[in-house]
Amino acid sequence: MADIVTQFDEAGADPVKGMFENAETLRSGLKLPTYLTEAYQRGEDLTLAKLAYREEDMPNSFNELLPRVTAAMAFADQWERTRPA
């Protein structure tokens, strides 16, 4: 572990700081695709769902958002593997 910390120090990088600086961008980027995947699963029209989307209605906490993102990703992966070519 000390070797890894030394490597980050020598590179002038702080991985924790970088992670927190980019967390909001990551969180924002996950919300709409997750929302639309959930809407698709419910059989909603995606054009209307996108018009109705409000980012503030999605959870902001990673603890609340992560299970929904994970489920949406699993659905999308399964859909991609099983859909006709």
What does this structure look like?
- By secondary structure, the chain is mostly helical.
- Helices cover 76% and strands 0% of the residues.
- It contains four helices and no strands.
- It is elongated.
- It starts with a helix and ends with a helix.
- The model has no long low-confidence stretch (mean pLDDT 85).
Element string (H = helix, E = strand): HHHH
> Percentage of helical residues?
over 70%
Could you name the ranges where pLDDT drops below 50 across 5 or more consecutive residues? none
The N- and C-terminal alpha carbons lie at a distance of: 46 Å
How many H/I helices?
Answer: 4
Beta-strand content: under 5%
Secondary structure category:
mainly alpha
In this structure, how is the largest beta sheet organized? Answer: none
Draw up the topology in text.
Layout (H helix, E strand, L loop, with lengths): L1 H10 L3 H27 L4 H7 L9 H21 L3
Write a brief caption for the model.
By secondary structure, the chain is mainly α. It is built from four helices and no strands. Helix content is 76%, strand content 0%.
Output the keywords.
76% helix, 85 residues
